Each structure stands twice: as C-alpha cells, then as structure tokens.
Amino acid sequence: MDYIFGGCEINVQVAIDFTLSNGECHEKSSLHYLDPYTLTNSYTEAIVACLGILENYSSDKMFPTYGFGGILPDTNQVSHCFALNGNIYAPHCNGLNGVLHSYT
Questions:
Q1: CA 95 to CA 61: how far, in whole Å?
Q2: Residue 17: which domain range?
Q3: pLDDT in tens, 18-50
Q4: Strands, DSSP E only, in the chain?
Q5: Residue of 55, 65, 61 whose CA lies nearest to 85
Q6: Which residues are bridge partners to 70 per DSSP?
Q7: Do 88 and 82 touch, CB atoms closer than 8 A?
Q8: I need a surface site. Which of 31, 34, 39, 46 has the fewest CB within 10 A?
Q9: For residues 91 and 36, what is the distance between their CA atoms, to the nearest angstrom?
Q10: Dihedrals φ, ψ of 17, to 5°?
C-alpha cells in the first residue's frame, strides 16, 4: 500500500492468444466462443477480472492491446502480433470497456 499511496502507477499491456489451441471461435468448446445469452467467455472473464483491478492504478487508462496467432481477414495469414483495435501504430484501447470492445 505504501507504493500506491506514494503515487505508484502501473502500465498494463494486454495480449490475447488466438492460436488454434483455443479451438475455433464458433464451436462451443472454444475459449473464444461467446455465450449468446451473456456475451461472455473465458477471455472476457479474465479481462474483466484483471483489468477491473489494474485500471484503477493507471492514470490514463489506455492499454496497448495485441493479439497473436490469429488469421487477419485482409491477409488470410497467421499474424504473430497485431493490434486488436486494427492500428498497429496506436494500439491503445480506452479502459476495460475499450479492450472488451476491441476483443469482441
């Protein structure tokens, strides 16, 4: 607590695994499958659990957010690093909701 009261800030970067080891996103067994009723999955729950706490210690609440192992629609090739918001030069998402929006 001394660090926090002393003004400590945390810079957070987010990386999401889109490799096939998670399964095809349209299959219910996939970690990326969004439940149609709750619009959640294992990844959204992890993002909320982690960033829900960590964003309180970030002054600007801007999180560079990347994906890896996904096939990008414009190239049809696997990318080992891409900005989730589509802009590799400015990959920041605004807060927890911005990260969730870019992910979904």
A1: 5
A2: 2-103
A3: 998 988 888 999 999 999 999 999 999 999 999
A4: 14-17, 62-68, 70-71, 78-79, 82-83, 92-94
A5: 65
A6: 79
A7: yes
A8: 39
A9: 28
A10: -85, 115
